[in-house]
Design goal:
- With 121 residues, the chain is mainly alpha-helical.
- The chain has a domain at 6-88.
- The chain has helices at 6-37, 40-66, 69-82, 97-102, 110-117.
- Helix 1 (6-37) runs antiparallel to helix 2, helix 1 packs parallel to helix 3 and helix 2 packs antiparallel against helix 3 (69-82).
- The protein starts with 5 loop residues before the first helix and ends with a helix.
């Protein structure tokens, strides 16, 4: 069985694109949580997500344009390893699953509370 054929490369590209878009989603979610709370760990997670998604995108492009399965999947796997989860602050106390999925936090920075309510200090 020849694994370098076009069908397998297409399947690998789809898998790598799913990994890439998952990393982009998690990066944008971390950015939203950082913007709402101001916790530095979420900013660092977003930076790490950008680096990881760069590796994954390079793997997808290498796989799509050269068909080199091993190097393309290796770069995507390195991106997944870079995007590991670290210890973060508790920002979801009683949020629903949809709110967690969208990055809506229960904790909000005081500056944002004042903007939302219109109360000035």
């Amino acid at each position: 069985m020849d694994f370098s054929g076009g069908t397998f490369v297409k399947i690998y590209i789809i898998i790598c694109l799913f990994a890439y878009f998952s990393m982009i989603y998690l990066t944008l979610r971390d950015l939203r949580i950082f913007w709402r709370t101001g916790f530095k760990s979420y900013r660092n997670g977003a930076f790490r997500g950008l680096v990881a998604s760069t590796f994954a995108l390079a793997g997808v492009l290498l796989l799509a344009f050269t068909g080199n399965i091993l190097l393309g999947l290796l770069l995507v796997f390195i991106g997944l390893l870079v995007n590991k989860k670290e210890e973060r602050e508790e920002v979801f106390t009683n949020a629903s699953a949809i709110d967690r999925f969208l990055g809506k936090t229960d904790l909000v920075r005081p500056e944002l509370k004042n903007k939302e309510t219109g109360i000035k200090k």
